[in-house]
Structures are given as structure tokens and as C-alpha cells.
Amino acid sequence: MTTAVAEPTGLAPLPFETYRTLDPAELDARIRAVKQAMGPELLILGHHYQQDEVIQFADLRGDSYKLAQQAAASRECRWIVFCGVHFMAETADVLTGPDVRVILPDMAAGCSMADMADIDAVETAWAELGELIDTADVMPVTYINSAADLKAFCGRHGGIVCTSSNARAVLDWSFRQRSRVLFFPDQHLGRNTARAMGVPLDQMPVWDPKLPMGGNPAEAIERSRVILWRGHCSVHQMFRPEHVAQFRAKYPGIKILVHPECTMKVVDAADLVGSTEFIIRTIEQAPPGSLWAVGTELHLVNRLAQEHPDKTVMFLSPMVCMCATMYRIDRPHLAWALENLARGTPVNVITVPAETARWARVALERMLEVR
Ligand code: 13P
Ligand code: SF4
In the 8-state DSSP scheme, what is residue 79? Predict the structure, then answer.
């Protein structure tokens, strides 16, 4: 039995400002109290890039793919508090039934990459492509790091969502049905994945949404197999091939492990590439005494270094590359969101409009079925 009834009460929500001034121990105690009071009615999901002060409270943690699966499989809870970024909370809302509602503790936790493609620009690109090639033979594929209306666009056009852990399987699925792919918004994940499948670079034009025909001559589009949206992750683009070279020179035998949102040159210079879940598994399974430089978000790399003191895990950049938007979710926001929820004044509830959700679900469910 749970003691808290998280039903809207008509009361005004508790204001956030007072939470900023509370000390960490008090905030932790308050977060624990709500978790205990709400029991299985509440599910806290946490992405691997979250800070330690937040991830410690996650009931389940994962990469984008695993978190989408966990949301889709949630049966007992009525509320998901998503410690991650906006597109992840939207995805959870789309994949859960009407009895489950999703909260993002800070609405400013967006994703700069997701913002690099919007529905108007994608619709325009689709129409422009249709002037040159048969779009019935183009598979639209959106990285999960995108707004729900772009996922809905893919759903409506026979397309699909991918994450960094299944991009290869999704492209294989796409090419079994159509001869070209429009991949958005991350050019690097698209390029790294398609090139590993043998697609030549001259068949992967980059589509710049600010330019007519994406800035491409007609022959480049006609020759294309994968049209790459001009988007990137501002965190992962900070890793450079020179950093790889510096680590190799300083630490002979070191292994370089990077996320596929890194540029092609970095991926080429690395030993291993994969999603955050892959990165974690690789370090867990590495032999004691091994040396690693990891190219992904700082909080995850620091956590891996702490959790594996028998191995040396270093951050693959002299710069601090942390995801400023993931970092928006902190103890005060989590405590504020949870206490409002428990008292019946939920804040920051993420609701994807029904028609968008319907088609986004089609594209997400296709992804969850792909093997
Ligand atoms: P994964 O969680 O799929 O590895 O992606 C990392 C990321 O950038 C999330 O925004
Ligand atoms: Fe977006 Fe990059 Fe942050 Fe992931 S790490 S949420 S892709 S900005």
C-alpha cells in the first residue's frame, strides 16, 4: 500500500526557489521520503549522463534505448520522473499508457542536438527531395535525440527511430525496404554507422537545412544512399583525433573507447565505439590493470573511473565536455518535482499531443521490434 496519493488537488505548486537553499543532506532525506511514501506508484528513470547526486535515486538507469524499453515495459507505476533530457521524457510519455504520466524535473533540460532539426525544416527537406528523387524509396530515420513530432513524421512515412545502440540494425532494416535513407539530426551517428556498413562517403551528402536543396547539387542527391542532416552533439564534437594521438603517445597500450556521436576521425582513431551502455559494459569486462581513455560525457567517465579503481579510466579530452542540459537535473529540482508530485501539485508534466504521440509510437515500436 502507498500512502501518497499523487492526484491533482487544485493547490498552487510549491515554488522552486526555496529548494535551492536547502542543504544536500536535507534534500536527500526529502527525496527518499517521497520515494518511500509513493512506493511502486513512482518510477525514477536515470540516464547514465546524470550527476551522481541524482543517479543515486534512479530505480532504473540506462542508455536511451534501455530507458525507452523500461518506460514501455512499466506496468506498476503511475508516475515516471525522468532524470534525463526532454526528448527522453517525451519518448517515455509516448511509450506508456494513459495511466502513466511523465515528469521532467527541469524543463530547461533539453538537447542542443535535438534542436538542430525541427518539423518545418524536415518537411521542407522532404518536399525538396521529392523534386529530385522518389521519396517513397527514402526511409526517414530519426535518432531518438529528436522531438516527438519528428518521430511522428517518421511514423507517418513508414520510417523508424534509432538509438546509438541499434543504429546499425535500424539501417539494415531500412535498406531491406528502401534504397535510400534520410537520417536526422546527428550526421556523425549516421555517417559512422553507414560507413561501417560499407556505404561510401560520396554517397552520403550532408543536408544543411538553411540552404536550398540542403546545399547540394542535384547529382549528389541522385547518387545518395544516406542523406545526413547537418546536426551534431556539442559535447561529443569536442573530442579530437589529436587527443587520441596524445593518449596513445603518453600511455602505450591504452585503449580508446568512444561514443558514435563523435566525429568520424575520432571514431577511426579509436579502438572501440558504442553507446553509453556499451561503454559501461566494456569497462566492466576489461581486465584489471588495463588503461582506457573514454570519449563521452564527463559525469559518466568520472563515475566509471571511481567504480573501477583496479583499472585506469581517463577522460579523452583536456577540455571539460559535460552535457550542460543533462546537468540541469540536480538535487533541488528532483526534490521539488517529487514533493510537488506527492502533494498532488505535479509540475513539469510532459504531454505529447495525441496525434503526434500516435505516430511517434509507430516509429518507436518499429525500433523496439528491430533486431
Ligand atoms: P545513448 O544513451 O544512447 O548512449 O546516447 C547518449 C546521448 O547523447 C544521450 O543524449
Ligand atoms: Fe544532447 Fe549531446 Fe547532451 Fe546527449 S550529450 S543530451 S546528444 S547535447
Answer: E
* Residues 6+ away with beta carbon under 8 Å from 217: none
The verdict on the CB of residue 326 being under 6 Å from ligand 2 is yes
Q: Which amino acid is at 173?
A: W
For ligand 2, is residue 85 a contact (CB within 6 Å)? yes
The answer for 214, left when phi > 0, alpha when psi is -120 to 50, beta otherwise, is: left
CATH code for the domain defined by 236-315: 3.40.50.10800
Q: For each successive 10 residues of the chain (371 residues), what is the average pLDDT?
A: 50 95 98 98 97 97 94 92 98 95 98 98 98 98 98 98 97 98 98 98 98 98 98 96 98 98 98 97 98 97 98 94 95 98 97 98 97 79
Q: Which CATH number fits domain 17-110+326-352: 3.30.2350.10, 3.50.50.60, 3.40.50.10800, 3.40.50.10330?
A: 3.40.50.10800
φ/ψ region of 212 (left if φ > 0, alpha if ψ in -120 to 50, else beta) reads beta
Residues in the chain: 371
Alpha-carbon distance of 117 to 167, in angstroms, equals: 18
CA distance 80 to 346: 11
Atom of ligand 2 nearest to the CA of 113: 1
Q: What are phi and psi of 178, to 5 degrees?
A: -135, 160
Residue range 114-233, CATH number = 3.40.50
